[in-house]
Amino acid sequence: HVYEVLMFIPGTEAYDHDDAVLDAQTISDIVKKSGMVPEFCSRKKESIDKDGDVVRQPPPDPRFLVRRPPVVTIMGHVDHGKTTLLDQLRSSNIVDKEFGGITQHIGAFLVTLSSGESICFLDTPGHAAFSAMRGRGAHLTDIIVLVVAADDGVMQQTLEVLQHAQDASVPIIVAINKIDKDNADVEKTKQMLMQHQVQLEEFGGEVQAVPISALKGVGLLELQEAIVTQAELMQLKGDPKGLVEGRVVEAQVDSKRGRLVTAVIQRGTLKRGDMLVAGTAWAKVRAMFNDSGNMVQAAPPGTPVEILGWKEIPSAGDEILQVKKESEVKSVLAWRNNQKSKMKQEENWMIIEERRKEHEKQHHAELVARRAQGLYRKRREAKSKESQARPDHPQFSLVLKGDTDGSVDAILDVFDTYHSKKCQLDIIHYGVGNVTESDVEIAATFEGEIFAFNVDLAQKAAALAKEKGVPVRRHNVIYRLFEQLVDRLNHKLPKIEEEVVVGEAKVLQVFQITLPNKKKSSVAGCRCVHGSMSKKLGVKVVRDNETIYTGSIASMKYFKNEVESIKKEQECGIGIDDQDFVFQPQDLIVNFETKEVDQEIDWDHGF
């Protein structure tokens, strides 16, 4: 097939059956003659092997596992006391620290009981964050403490938490809060929980229910003991050795310390100098802080820490993995960025395809409707320079080339909505196909520009355009084409003068003075009521909301001294160039300066 196509391409007679076609232009011609569109790719190999990524280590040897603190998330309906409970568990000293200036609340904190047991609490902001973490496969939470108010019972968000816990296979401990209130009904709350398939221990189930009052601090010890009991049943253990694994709880940029990431360590012991990767961000650990803001040297499994040293900010829920050397970091980030780029391209392609189908459907319907009415677009006749009268106002001439008739037709439809009087938009030629030397010649004749949509520019045409100074604007996204067209139209518009008010003075009294030529003239005794008054700038006199004089200041006196300017609330005497003008009390003297500003075209093209 290729050999047969070569017969129809001039200058390829020397090719034989076994020859390789290496010339790019010839290859392009072969593909086009075959009815397809050539697409040239980079010679550089961009594919990155999966070996470039870093993955979690195999499960550790059970003999080396040690007990770790349980990771607990407190959730519940709005106003059921979740925040109060968190503050009580933090021993309330967080309030003092926050009012002290720097907020030490880092989203995860460790509570040590009198028995020596520790619990890691997560302060996740509502259900959305938990869902996002679960969506990324972040089974970071070991236990959920569901806070239910004894006076309200089971509410909408309570049911959402139950669904989240069921989906993530996370055990629940129910904390029945606000038992100190007069209308609290603990038994009724338990019955409501049973109705939603929450099997409480006292009714033969496995879910513990602890009555508490977060406000008064009642029942908190029992709640902590219930968490420890649940953790013992789950036999939570972690591997303190080997490479570090963890999860991002939250990330922020601190104005003093820079990028800070709060994380919970799941495996290994994090130390200063370790190199970490999370998503497409990486860090070399410079320092670590606990929830009290104190620096720590090591973070074993189950420990929440703030990590300093990130080059970029990762996302909440991202998996943190340790790498051994910086070259490995670069390899991992290159692979992940490549994957991210591919996913983005696929998403964009799907959106483009959907919009293209919608456009084709709509265009087809409009075409059928136009044909049914017997209306066809009247072909624009080519213009010659002689027949084109040059208007006095600005004019922008363009040549339009597109990849298909449908594309050109759609762009012409948008051009039909242009009705601005500020600048004449003149389409001197349009057509389908690549930009040719003929297009450049036409554009040069009318001192216009070429707008090309989804088409190529031949080398000879490019050289001719450069020689004749014809700009060729190439686009493959339609709204970008119109953005640049509007920009070029604005560029054609002349600047306009605009008056900017600098100050205003109110006339309080009028004085008659005799000039050196024996002629009498009026001087306004006035007070500056807005901004400042400058002798160098122009003035307008406004009387009864009507401008009766526009000119300049001849004289400005402060007491008996001639001055250049007057500030607000100062009194002065002002005389103007027109000696015959007579001021009246309550006249307003407006001081203004004239500036040149750019105009903008009045065209709503719909993009």
TrEMBL record:
It is found in: Mitochondrion. Keywords: GTP-binding, Initiation factor, Mitochondrion, Nucleotide-binding, Protein biosynthesis, Transit peptide. Signal peptide: none annotated. InterPro entries: EF-G-like_DII, IF2_II, P-loop_NTPase, Small_GTP-bd, T_Tr_GTP-bd_dom, TF_IF2_bacterial-like, TIF_IF2, TIF_IF2_dom3. Pfam families: EF-G_D2, GTP_EFTU, IF-2. SUPFAM superfamilies: Initiation factor IF2/eIF5b, domain 3 (SSF52156), P-loop containing nucleoside triphosphate hydrolases (SSF52540), Translation proteins (SSF50447). It comes from the Eukaryota. One of its GO terms (cellular component) is mitochondrion. Coiled coil: none annotated. Residues 67-241 form the Tr-type G domain. Residues 383-393 have a biased composition (Basic and acidic residues). Residues 378-398 are annotated as: Disordered. Gene3D superfamilies: P-loop containing nucleotide triphosphate hydrolases, Translation factors, Translation initiation factor IF- 2, domain 3. One of its GO terms (molecular function) is GTP binding. Belongs to the TRAFAC class translation factor GTPase superfamily. Classic translation factor GTPase family. IF-2 subfamily. One of the essential components for the initiation of protein synthesis. Protects formylmethionyl-tRNA from spontaneous hydrolysis and promotes its binding to the 30S ribosomal subunits. Also involved in the hydrolysis of GTP during the formation of the 70S ribosomal complex. NCBIfam families: IF-2, small_GTP. This is Translation initiation factor IF-2, mitochondrial. The lineage of its organism: Eukaryota, Metazoa, Spiralia, Lophotrochozoa, Mollusca.
